[in-house]
Automatic annotation (TrEMBL):
Endonuclease that specifically degrades the RNA of RNA-DNA hybrids. The keyword Cytoplasm applies. This is Ribonuclease HII. It is an enzyme of class 3 (hydrolase). The gene is rnhB. Belongs to the RNase HII family. It comes from the Bacteria. InterPro entries: RNase_HII, RNase_HII/HIII, RNase_HII/HIII_dom, RNaseH-like_sf, RNaseH_sf. SUPFAM superfamilies: Ribonuclease H-like. One of its GO terms (biological process) is DNA replication, removal of RNA primer.
């Protein structure tokens, strides 16, 4: 038999972007778990501010159109969907402060915020879908960690939007208290503007002192290394 010639173009499913849907939620429901919550967090990477987690139980009959990974949406579209999610779904939000992050670590602080968000839902979840590699310990229900979950599950996507919009609003308000760092523009990420503010004014109470380059000593650079050449 003559060997098959490989195709000269990549497979459609290798290149098509992921689009979140309700299949994981329906699978859990078929297994006897209902309602199903999606959970995600925002703000693991910034040098300042809290990490914010959200848990969302969508109404299958009123799922807002256009739910997706919050990073794939414009700020305006996130705000629009945020309002729709709060109007149609059961939502809970929790956060871990920079102090909490420094006392533990960002992973533990993120999972703790996610756990508190899930446990604070007005309607208890029977099953939880979380974005990433971990299900928070200490839940009253089983759960499943979903890699790229915010691009696979509309419930996780909704949680990612709620967490992102909430944190962005918190950092915009923080700018009014600490205007020297530009929090409203970069929401705490290590941009050149932010690093210049730290260099000039020193860190404030919102900064994560366990993060490089704020951390001192042999594990982190000194502050004069903050400004790019």
């Amino acid at each position: 038999m003559k060997p098959r010639t490989p195709p000269d173009s990549p497979l459609l499913f290798d290149t098509a972007p992921l689009v979140p849907d309700f299949r994981l939620e329906l699978k859990a429901r078929k297994a006897g778990h209902w309602p199903v919550a999606g959970a995600d967090e925002a703000g693991r990477g910034p040098l300042a501010g809290p990490v914010v987690a959200a848990a969302v139980i969508l109404d299958p009959k009123r799922i807002p159109e256009g739910l997706n990974d919050s990073k794939q949406l414009s700020a305006q579209r996130r705000e629009e969907l945020f309002v729709q999610i709060l109007a149609t779904a059961t939502v809970s939000i929790a956060s871990s402060s920079s102090t909490r992050i420094d006392e533990t670590d960002i992973r533990k602080a993120s999972l703790d915020a996610m756990r508190r968000a899930i446990c604070s839902l007005a309607v208890p979840a029977s099953y939880v879908l979380t974005d990433g590699l971990d299900v928070p310990p200490g839940l009253d229900c089983p759960g499943q960690a979903v890699v790229k979950g915010d691009a696979r599950s509309v419930s996780i996507a909704a949680a990612s939007i709620v967490a992102k919009v909430t944190r962005d609003r918190m950092m915009a308000r923080a700018h009014n208290v600490f205007p020297d760092y530009g929090f409203a523009a970069h929401v705490g990420y290590g941009t050149a503007q932010h690093r210049a503010g730290i260099e000039k004014h020193g860190p404030c109470s919102l900064h994560r002192m366990s993060f490089r380059p704020l951390r001192k000593g042999e594990d982190g650079p000194e502050m004069d290394e903050l400004i790019p050449e």
